[in-house]
């Protein structure tokens, strides 16, 4: 208790252990690839393979900042990754964004078939809620609050609604307010809820919950601006998904509305605001500060 | 208390009130059609419109038999109808069964578009779990048990898995065991869980839960055999969906494996067994007996 200068290793050194936890927890949740119907279960595992797992890391980083034991965070970390994976599988379908490449490999409907991809997305969504309902280390009231938050963030008023607006906005020029509203739902809501789920696990008081919301909102929007910038300046090999798609689909993006330099400037200001919010939560918000830096520096 | 011969009106007379409860609860759950994104919310309501609501009635009939207050059953009744509606929207997609007609009207992807239909299904599934998490009249432990049961019944080991097996079985001849296993998942699991959810609301003891499982399994399988029979003998106008599809898609059905008469005989035996199970639950299982009769007599 008196060792106030006690050396705590940086979050960076703990990331591999968190990713290993996630991998084990996901492996335990997903039925083995040989389980009947085996093609469906193979495809579910294929859809969850790879990726940066930023959303799971946000759960762990927020939880660590709030002093939550990792085993209370695993179900939430898995649930957000499962929702994210399902949304990518469905967004990539021919009836939606029609993309062939994801995480550097063929999309699920290319590697398997369209029917399987639809069912994989459906089953991964179900599994996200099942993971929270089956969580061992958290009590029933917390599970219910987590399920409520995740459902709200990912449903028609959140992620799915954002995707619907995005589809309807092709070939339209949005203003910056409309674009921010779209992305607050399409990508922002799920990023925000990672912080909220960890807050629920921590039984965080209201003031902390407000600061977590501010951190999560800033990171979510900054992340999307960056995504638009990377879509324009990076190549397909680096991204692991088709680059330059926004322009082909004639979508409004932050660089198309603000210019590339201003868009990058806006993202950087949001990362700074996120760091401010993190410092207001705790004198030792190093995991959240690390995460803001880590996301800010990504090239894909 | 002493009026043991008190006249209880038959369940039949209470069905309209239960359906009205369901309609009101669904209306409160679904965002208004004008809510942004309005096209998505219109389509979600379109997808939930109509239908026989047999699954919701099973929740209410089981709950009434076990003495549960209707307000404790509404969230489960809505949740099973939402899961059922989402599964129909996705099953009808061109990449799946490719059907133009459902409940006597154009399917969602015909009335709207494919992207909207994919997102409608996704959002309806989310809403099913949100409905249970937000339920007012049941405690957190019961909500968690309901969410767990519904997720298991509808995921890759239940309904979605059954649909995957069904897609993979086109042009194959199944044996009767394989066909029953397919349908126990594709339609049976969701029908079974209606009884289980009401059992959770009632905190039913183990013996009752076993009898409910037997009732639900028999009804589920009998229902599907009937579906196969009706697909063969009824016309499209009566069914409200394309008749004769099984033969066109070269699917194994109960009539194709057993013959029409034997299939009907098997369904009737299962309805009898369901009534036996109902009587073992309570001396006054009239709602469950009514429901078995009602389903047995349906012509669409």
TrEMBL record, chains A, B:
Its cofactor is Mg(2+). It holds the Pfam family polyprenyl_synt. Keywords: Isoprene biosynthesis, Magnesium, Metal-binding, Transferase. Coiled coil: none annotated. The keyword Amino-acid biosynthesis does not apply. PROSITE patterns: POLYPRENYL_SYNTHASE_1 (PS00723), POLYPRENYL_SYNTHASE_2 (PS00444). It comes from the Bacteria. Belongs to the FPP/GGPP synthase family. NCBIfam families: FPPsyn (NF045485). This is Polyprenyl synthetase family protein. It comes from Dyella lipolytica.
């Amino acid at each position: 208790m008196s060792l106030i200068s006690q050396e705590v290793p940086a979050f960076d050194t703990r990331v591999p252990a968190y990713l290993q936890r996630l991998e084990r927890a996901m492996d335990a949740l997903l039925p083995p690839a040989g389980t009947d119907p085996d093609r469906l279960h193979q495809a579910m595992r294929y859809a969850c393979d790879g990726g940066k797992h930023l959303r799971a890391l946000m759960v762990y980083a927020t939880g660590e900042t709030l002093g939550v034991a990792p085993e209370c965070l695993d179900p939430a970390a898995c649930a957000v990754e499962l929702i994210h994976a399902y949304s990518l599988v469905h967004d990539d379908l021919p009836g939606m964004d029609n993309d062939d490449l994801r995480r550097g490999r063929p999309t699920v409907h290319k590697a398997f078939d369209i029917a399987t991809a639809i069912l994989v997305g459906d089953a991964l969504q179900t599994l996200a809620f099942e993971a929270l309902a089956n969580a061992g280390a958290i009590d029933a009231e917390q599970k219910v609050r987590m399920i409520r938050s995740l459902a709200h963030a990912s449903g028609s008023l959140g992620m799915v609604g954002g995707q619907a607006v995005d589809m309807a906005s092709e070939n339209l020029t949005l203003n910056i307010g409309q674009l921010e509203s779209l992305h607050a739902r399409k990508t922002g809501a799920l990023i925000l809820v990672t912080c909220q789920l960890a807050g629920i696990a921590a039984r965080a008081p209201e003031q902390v919950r407000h600061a977590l919301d501010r951190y999560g909102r800033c990171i979510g929007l900054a992340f999307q601006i960056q995504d638009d910038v990377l879509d324009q300046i990076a190549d397909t090999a680096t991204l692991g998904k088709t680059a330059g798609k926004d322009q082909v689909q004639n979508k409004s993006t932050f660089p198309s509305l603000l210019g590339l330099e201003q868009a990058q400037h806006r993202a950087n200001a949001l990362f700074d605001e996120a760091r401010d919010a993190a410092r207001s939560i705790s004198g030792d918000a190093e995991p959240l500060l690390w995460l803001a830096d880590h996301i800010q520096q990504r090239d894909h």
